[in-house]
Amino acid sequence: MASIDLISGSTFTDSWASAGIQLSSADSTVLPFFVSAASNGIQRWLGRWLVLRDYIEIRQPVSGQWDKADPDRIALSWFPVVATSLNRSCSVRTNRQTVLQISNQNLQTNQDAWFELMTIGDPNFGLPTPCGIELSSMSSGVVTRATFPFLGTPVSSGFSVVASGSGGTIPAGTYQCAYSNLNDAGESVPSAAVSLVVAAGNKIVATLPALIPQATGNNFYLSTTNGSSATMTVQNTSPLAQTSYTLAVPVSGAAQQTVSYGTIGQLATGINALGNGWNTQIQGPTPTFSPWPSWDVWASSGTTVGALNTGYQQGLDVFTTHMVGQQLDQESGELWLPQGASAWGSGPGNIFQWPGSSDVAMGGNWNGPVLLKYGAGFATIPEAVQEACCQLVKAMFDRFGTDVTLKKEEGDKYRREAFELIPYLPKPARQALALFKLYSA
After folding, report:
1. Is 216 among the domain residues?
2. What's 284's DSSP letter?
3. pLDDT surpasses 50 at 200
4. Which of 201, 212, 270, 412 has its CA 20 to 30 A from that of 290?
């Protein structure tokens, strides 16, 4: 089932089977595409995504008036808000500040220098997750790039390997095994190695932890026979998204990574080691931000690209403070922020400190943007929506035969006019869908 699908292919075939209709092999081939197209069309018509997903947003609170019992608030883009394996609640963080300043000071050789914050994820579903940073410099028309992936060394918890079965061609002996995380920016260093004794003919079965949010896949590493962890190489030919991997034939793959940029401190060290004028400075108290996870940063000033060709510094920001005391209406996604302290300057407190906590002049605690991480959608799609999706898929199949979407066709001067698919749905299905439609942002 694709990430946007409102029904499964089996749901549709079961509904047709109950009506005595069987899909041909050709129909079964195109069914997944029709389901995804219908699901996408319905959700875009509704103006909201219904499938359960995790989201990241950076939002500016709307100022309230605390003297009228109207707190600062944020309307989340997606709802209903529910717990997921990644987000057990709606996380709200504030106090955005720059933790790393990046500059290029080689203005004699470099005509231009810039960096880009790399991300993974579909921008249709909230903000993509930062996964790395790429530094670029141009000298005499030649661009030199260096990529730093935002991944730390994966933990060994949840990782295990066993040697069993027959039919493998792995030489008998003792092996060191490990795994690593990958994202669009690169690869982490492998996890701590696990020792495994393999008998002649055995296969190796590895159990991998579920992917962390900022990873797109894993690699499985295996050493040479009776070799150390320094001899480990990648065994899989493509990144592993599944949690189980079986190896029957060892290969001499890519060597393991030797550098990780899992923290702000490691990232700063790696950039400074580039030379060619690159320079970074960790802001604030080093013990606080040096171990901060690099994948939790955002480009300063909300930009993704910093132009450094004039020696200008561009930074990376983090949201440092978890907000507590907010109230959330899970059904509507309406989030009410707590009032500030009653002390002068972080009110509302006394009447002369109104209108509230977002009053910049009063030094409000969260007058700036906040970082939101939450899960939203339906774990089980409402039956009325599933029925509408089935109807829409059926309409697509109908177009292969008699085109029942044909609204008008005229002779003489030929003219053909077709219905849009959503209005083509039976009126009861459209009325049921309307209950889920978002009419205002």
Report:
1. yes
2. S
3. yes
4. 212
Q: What order of strands is seen across the sheet that includes strand 112-120?
A: 142-149, 129-139, 112-120, 305-307
Q: Is the pLDDT of residue 223 over 50?
A: yes
pLDDT for res 207: 97
> In this predicted model, what pLDDT tens digit does every residue of 366-401 receive, in sequence order?
567 889 999 999 999 999 999 899 888 888 887 665
Task: Residue 98: count other Cβ atoms within 10 Å of its Cβ.
Answer: 19
Other residues' Cβ atoms within 10 Å of the Cβ of residue 380: 7
Q: From residue 341, give the alpha-carbon distance in Å to each of 67, 345, 440.
A: 15, 9, 33
Structure tokens at 259: 């550098």
| DSSP codes, 382-410 | -HHHHHHHHHHHHHHHHTTSS-TTEEEEE
Boundary residue ending a domain (247, 277, 308): 247
Q: Considering 193, 212, 247, which residue would you say is the last residue of a domain?
A: 247
Contacts of 214 (CB under 8 A, 6+ apart): 120, 129, 130, 131, 150, 151, 181, 183, 295
41 occurs within a structural domain: yes
Residues 76-105 pLDDT 10s: 999 999 998 888 889 999 888 888 888 888
Q: Would 384 be classed as within a structural domain?
A: yes
Amino acid at 221: Y
Name the domain count of the chain. 2
Q: Are 376 and 91 in contact (CB under 8 A)?
A: no
Decide: 51 and 318 in contact? Cβ < 8 Å: no
Task: Select from 86, 181, 190 the least CA-distant residue to 131.
Answer: 181
Domain hosting 405: range is 9-51+379-434
Within a domain: residue 408?
yes
Cβ contacts of residue 282 below 8 Å, gap of 6+? 99, 100, 264, 265, 268, 289, 290
| Nearest by Cα to 392 from 118, 3, 5, 1 | 5
- Flag the least confident range among 38-52, 108-122, 222-236, 358-372: 358-372
pLDDT confidence of 142, banded at 50, 70, 90?
Answer: very high
